[in-house]
Design goal:
This protein is mostly helical. It has a domain of 106 residues. It is 73% helix and 0% strand. Helix 4 packs antiparallel against helix 5, helix 11 runs antiparallel to helix 12 and helix 12 packs antiparallel against helix 13.
Length: 470
């Protein structure tokens, strides 16, 4: 039955129920007169202040007064869309299923909102499942739906299916948009198919499209990520020739790419170009420049840039500190690096795994294992684990210094906390250390025995010569 009796939804002449009934009437009137935004605003107000079971009661109340108000299915569509917008996915899914049960279907625009909200939370599996449900219910997608589906397939590493959807767009009566191309180009880069990404960019003309700043930024990021900075720079030249204006993202990506390779000079040139183009640098720009200088040990120049942050009303963040610590570690200055690390903590910035590992590795190189252990314990408190190489370096260094028990205690503590790095073989490391110690012992014994033999030979020769003289 389409309608329930009033008793089945608990209508009694009390104020709270009357309010719910009144609200349902208002929603019918607004949606029938296509005042969807107003209807959604009222729905949000009801849901924010309501109880957990309110969504179910609200649907029943709206359903009960549906025919009485000569309403349209858009009232249920508004409920579905509002739940999706509020990221109340269980409620929106319930409404979708109830709509189907009563012969109603949401609009493609509301379905798009549902998909978009799912993707915001990276729920790719639910997105693709819902798209299949749309197909089963014969809810025709539009180009925005298909763009999001292409993105979902790219994120789920099903690039071949994303390509199929892209190709099917034309057969479905849609022309790919610039967003369609940009999404698939990003998918190609995530699979390291740089050639395919560039080829797709070059084919935009057949759909009367031209690459935009997002297209070029995606390509530049992909090339920088792969360390192909020449190609990334070529993309910058191409976008300029096509009158596509580079933005802050373009320059930050390139500066960071060059900085990662220690090419601070090129990073500086790009920064100067930014300034000439009146693009204001942000904290990401400065962090990239500082990193480039620190990678080659130019910590003094990096410090001057830190002072410039105040002029731009910018505040150093974790990446700023990490870059400066990198510079001090490159110069093997573990003491100052440690002091800067403490300043970082006091500033409320949180070091990442890479920062911890740099500090530990530098302490080990300087054979300051007490400092390395202190950093290691702070790392363990944050439930972070070292990589295999750094842990082996620390363990071997402790054993060389005769701190075998401390080394074993450290490994045991990491094992108890399940923080031993993947691939690290504790037994093999211990056996390796024991083999090294055995080898050292063998060499030591050999030296001692050889010395004893030489001493015996020398004594024998002296005795023999004395007897001969006598």
């Amino acid at each position: 039955m389409l309608f329930h009796s009033s008793s089945s939804i608990g209508f009694i002449p009390t104020s709270p129920v009357h309010t719910l009934e009144t609200h349902s009437m208002i929603l019918h009137i607004l949606t029938k007169n296509k005042k969807f935004k107003s209807a959604e605003s009222i729905l949000k107000g009801i849901l924010v202040s309501g109880s957990i079971d309110l969504p179910a009661k609200l649907f029943d109340a709206v359903l009960y007064s549906y025919r009485m108000c000569d309403s349209s299915s858009r009232v249920f569509d508004s409920m579905f869309k509002t739940y999706a917008h509020m990221k109340k996915f269980r409620n929106s899914t319930d409404v979708f299923c109830q709509m189907k049960d009563y012969g109603f279907l949401p609009t493609v625009e509301s379905c798009n909102k549902y998909i978009s909200s799912l993707l915001d939370l990276n729920r790719v599996d639910f997105t693709l499942g819902f798209y299949k449900e749309m197909q089963r219910c014969r809810i025709s997608p539009n180009v925005y739906t298909l763009n999001m589906v292409i993105g979902a397939f790219c994120k789920s590493v099903k690039l071949e299916i994303a390509v199929e959807v892209f190709k099917e767009m034309e057969h479905m009566g849609f022309s790919p948009t610039i967003a369609s191309y940009n999404t698939l180009i990003a998918g190609y880069f995530n699979k390291d198919l740089l050639g395919s990404a560039v080829k797709l960019k070059n084919s935009m003309g057949k759909d009367s499209l031209q690459p935009n700043v997002i297209t070029f930024n995606t390509l530049i990021y992909g090339f920088c990520k792969e360390g192909k900075l020449h190609e990334a720079n070529r993309m910058l030249s191409e976008m300029k020739s096509m009158n596509v204006t580079p933005n802050i993202v373009t320059y930050n990506t390139l500066i960071y790419g060059f900085s990662q390779t220690g090419n601070s000079e090129m990073g500086g040139r790009l920064y100067e170009e930014m300034v000439r183009n009146e693009i204001k640098a942000d904290i990401l720009t400065y962090n990239a420049l500082i990193l480039g200088l620190c990678k080659v040990g130019k910590t003094k120049k990096a410090a001057y840039l830190v002072k410039d942050l105040d002029k731009g009303n910018l505040v150093p963040n974790a990446s700023t500190f990490s870059a400066l610590i990198t510079g001090l570690c490159v110069r093997k200055n573990s003491e100052n690096a440690f002091q800067l690390y403490k300043s970082m903590i006091k500033s409320g910035c949180h070091p990442n795994k890479h920062t911890f590992q740099m500090l530990i590795s530098t302490f080990c190189e300087n054979e300051d294992f007490d400092g390395a252990i202190q950093i290691m314990h702070e790392m363990l408190e944050r439930c972070m684990s070292l990589d295999t190489g750094t842990l082996s370096e620390l363990y071997s260094g402790l054993c060389r210094c005769g701190k075998d028990q401390l080394a074993m205690k450290l490994l045991n503590e990491m094992e108890i906390r399940c923080l031993l790095p993947e691939g690290f073989d504790k037994a093999r490391t211990i056996n390796s250390k024991q083999r090294i110690m055995t080898k050292i012992l063998e060499i030591t014994l050999k030296v001692v025995l050889t010395s004893c033999i030489l001493s015996t030979d020398e004594l024998f020769q002296r005795t023999f010569l004395q007897n001969k003289v006598q």
